[in-house]
Amino acid sequence: MENYKNILLINFGGIGDEILFMPVIQSLKRSFSDSKITLCLEGRSSSFIGLTSLIDNHFCVDIKTKNKYIEMLKLYYKALTGRYDLVISSGANPLIAVLLFFTGIKTRVGYKSSKLSEKLLTYPVVLNKNQYASKMYFDLVKPITGAEFEYPCIDIKDSDKIPDSVLIHPGVSLISISKNIIKTISAEKWALLIKKLLEKGKKVYLAGGPDDNKCITQIRENLKDCDLTNFTDMFGKTKNIIELAQLIKKCEVLVCSDSAPMHIGVATQTRTIAIFGPTDEKKLLPESEKYTAIKNESNCRPCLWEKRLTTCNDLSCLDIDITKIIELI
Q1: Residue 310 has what pLDDT?
Q2: Would you say 223 and 231 are in contact if contact means Cβ atoms under 8 Å apart?
Q3: CA separation (Å) from 60 to 11, 20, 71, 152, 158?
Q4: Number of neighbouring beta carbons within 10 Å of residue 102
Q5: Are strands 162-169 and 123-125 parallel, antiparallel or unpaired?
Q6: Which residue from 40, 91, 116, 167 puts its CA 20 to 30 A from 126's CA?
């Protein structure tokens, strides 16, 4: 096996996508412990770097929010001048293979998305989307390390679990909403779930990012008449992704939507119950008793990314019976 010293990884997407990509990084660092790994990612996901010590350098390329041609030239220049001996890209666009070829990097790994990519890549990998997304990414590193897949893992210190604790994270994304992509239940249902858990004697924590502000406000309104002795409002108190990950790891159970906190739950090995509407849980949540998808057995789901690029107006897939969540907890 060739000993790669300077590795470039390219993986665009949100923080969840970067966590799903972690097994690639873990496998490379284990196989080439002296290697220097540089990650190219989107600016919106740059906080991910704080969740792992395996990345030596990183730079951001914002092809979705800035001029994509200028940003791709930026990527090309960085790859050309970085003296990398291995590059792995998760992009399926055939033009990625062309860009990588002209960087002169000796070993180029990517998905076999066309006859051109098959010729220009050193290792063209078959893209299999019908599996857990983290395994889909891991297929890229198999020709290099030959290692077995392992779940994503992030660097969060071990801490004692808070007894009988449940962390609620709605996981609203304003970017998704602007694109008519709805993946979470209503604030009223989140509030009802919290009420029922408090009645059961659970210690309930509520957290969220800036995008959750409206939902959190509505949840608070619906909890005004409750006994909130065992309720802790952590919204705005977790200042960054690291503090959120620490809170997730401290709690016995995380209840969330299909969102970045769900992937953090998996990466911290926290018991995670995730609400799924239009997306496919088989591709986003690993098969394990520790991680459970709560879904409505609607005949039309999953549809998002499979049949359509936006959520339908019906949203019957998000008609979730919260008693299932309470029973699991």
Answers
A1: 64
A2: yes
A3: 10, 18, 9, 22, 30
A4: 12
A5: unpaired
A6: 40
* Other beta carbons less than 10 A from residue 110's beta carbon: 27
Tokens of 102: 């002209």
Decide: 25 and 55 in contact? Cβ < 8 Å. yes
> For residue 263, which of 243, 252, 248, 278 has the smallest C-alpha distance?
248
What are the distances in angstroms from CA 77 to CA 10, 36, 306?
14, 18, 35
Centre a 10 Å sphere on the Cβ of residue 34 and count the other Cβ atoms it contains: 8
Contact in structure between 115 and 80 (CB atoms under 8 Å): no
Alpha carbon dihedral 68, 52, 258, 225, in 10-degree steps, equals -120
Retrieve residue 182's tokens. 């709805």
Give the contacts of 141 (CB within 8 A, at least 6 positions apart): 23, 24, 27, 28, 88, 109, 147
pTM: 0.92
CB 74 within 8 A of CB 45: no
Q: What angle do CA 216, 219, 221 make, to 5 degrees?
A: 115
Rounded CA-CA distance 58/70 in Å is 18
Tokens of 79: 């790859």
Instruction: Record the tokens describing residue 249, joined without a space.
Output: 């790891």
**Strands lying side by side in the sheet with 123-125:** 57-60, 36-41, 6-10, 86-89, 107-111, 123-125
pLDDT for position 174: 56
Positive or negative: CA dihedral 59, 63, 66, 71: positive
Alpha-carbon gap, residue 89 to 104, rounded angstroms: 15
The token duo for 172 is 């609203």
| pLDDT mean values, one per 10 residues, the chain (329 residues) | 92 96 98 97 96 97 88 95 97 90 96 93 96 98 96 93 97 64 84 96 95 92 94 94 96 96 97 91 93 84 64 72 92
